[in-house]
Design a protein that fits this description.
Blueprint (H helix, E strand, L loop, with lengths): L7 H11 L8 H13 L5 H23 L6 H4 E7 L3 E6 L2 E2 L9 H13 L8 E9 L5 E8 L12 E9 L4 E13 L2 E2 L7 H4 L7 E4 L2 E5 L11 H16 L6 H5 L1 E11 L4 H4 L5 E6 L5 E2 L5 E8 L8 E8 L2 H12 L2
Parallel strand pairs: 3-8
Antiparallel strand pairs: 1-2, 2-5, 4-6, 4-11, 5-7, 6-7, 9-10, 10-12, 11-15, 12-14, 13-14, 14-15
Bound molecules: zinc ion (ZN).
Zinc ion (ZN) binds next to loops.
């Protein structure tokens, strides 16, 4: 586990800024706070000082994280149990956490393993051309058995230990169904500092790069400086997550600091064969949120439907569901329920 325990001076500082118990303040909350100050129209002297201190703390977090930088080696974390020709494969997967998602595996990161396992059963000349659907069913704290198959297996339910499932399609017209079953007692131990190096490189939500018009939100995408292809599926899911985190709390209210957001699922995400198609110069990501269709889920979280369109999706938009909890106690309760063995 990466140690970013604040120094005694930082504890005093953070207590002064957030109040209450510092152990419960996540790096994400600190980033949100700094961001809300950065975006504020005008700042008082004391707010300016607070912002400066938060930036210093975040710099330290960054430094600690880069010192511990570990390049993910998926083969090490994907132990193949069975491959049946081009039809199906099964593997034991060792997930990882990140300093930004210290308690649970970040949903988009799971797509790295799905891609790697799918590649094991592709035919010559075959490539993955779309994520038809993925549903993340609960926060992931345990490692899993991942299965991918041309034949849709009987679905695991959440009670049965299913963490996520979905379908990929290929350029040869095949559908590859994946599902993951949690390995009880095998807690995710590995922490990597930079699981997906690309999403942050191409996505920015500063006022220059991000504009909103009612429920329509538009983000500029910057062309990547490195080859994103091996991680394209995970990167695109991650960018959608980053965009929604920005969109769902534009008001910078106190609620933003108390909120939790989980990406429930994504549908119809096309994957072109080159990253240049996704990130052309001047490319934009369009996101439409649909507050009229929002519902309250079983867990008490608000379920917000949305649509998105990357530059390469000129015809069909993708869609998805974001689960949002505005109240810290509701979040805690939800997590407790999900983690109950
Ligand atoms: Zn920007």
């Amino acid at each position: 586990m990466i140690d970013i325990t604040p120094t005694p001076e930082e504890v005093t500082l953070l207590k002064g800024i957030f109040g209450g118990e510092v152990e419960y303040i996540s790096v994400g909350q600190i980033q949100n706070k700094a961001e809300s100050l950065e975006n504020a129209v005008s700042l008082s002297q004391s707010e300016r000082e607070t912002l400066q201190r938060l930036r210093m703390f975040l710099q330290r977090v960054d430094a600690v994280a880069s010192n511990l930088f570990q390049v993910l080696n998926p083969s090490e974390d994907l132990r193949i149990l069975e491959i049946s020709g081009h039809n199906s494969a099964r593997a034991e997967v060792g997930f990882f956490r990140t300093p930004w998602s210290p308690n649970f595996v970040h949903g988009p990161d799971t797509m790295i393993f799905v891609t790697k396992l799918a590649e094991k059963i592709l035919k010559p000349g075959e490539s993955i051309c779309a994520l038809e659907r993925v549903t993340w069913k609960k926060p992931i704290a345990n490692n899993a058995i991942l299965t991918i198959s041309e034949i849709e297996s009987s679905p695991f339910s959440v009670e049965n230990g299913c963490l996520f499932d979905g379908t990929l399609s290929t350029n040869l017209g095949r559908k590859l169904h994946f599902t993951s079953k949690e390995r009880q007692g095998s807690t995710v131990q590995k922490v990597v500092a930079n699981s997906n190096p690309y999403a942050k490189q191409v996505f920015c939500s500063c006022p220059d790069c991000y504009k909103s018009y009612g429920d329509v939100h538009i983000f500029d995408l910057k062309p990547p400086t490195a080859d994103t292809q091996p991680y394209l599926l995970s990167t695109l899911c991650e960018i959608v997550t980053l965009a929604l985190s920005k969109i769902c709390h534009p008001d910078m209210s106190k609620e933003r600091l108390d909120s939790m957001r989980l990406l429930g699922g994504i549908k119809n995400l096309e994957l072109p064969s080159s990253a240049e198609a996704v990130f052309p110069p001047g490319g934009k990501l369009h996101v439409l949120i649909k507050p009229v269709e929002k519902k309250t889920g079983k867990s008490g979280m608000t379920l917000m439907p949305f649509e998105f369109r990357f530059p390469h999706q000129d015809q069909n938009s993708g869609s998805g569901i974001m689960a949002i909890s505005y109240k810290q106690d509701m979040t805690e309760e939800y997590l407790r329920k999900c983690l109950k063995p």
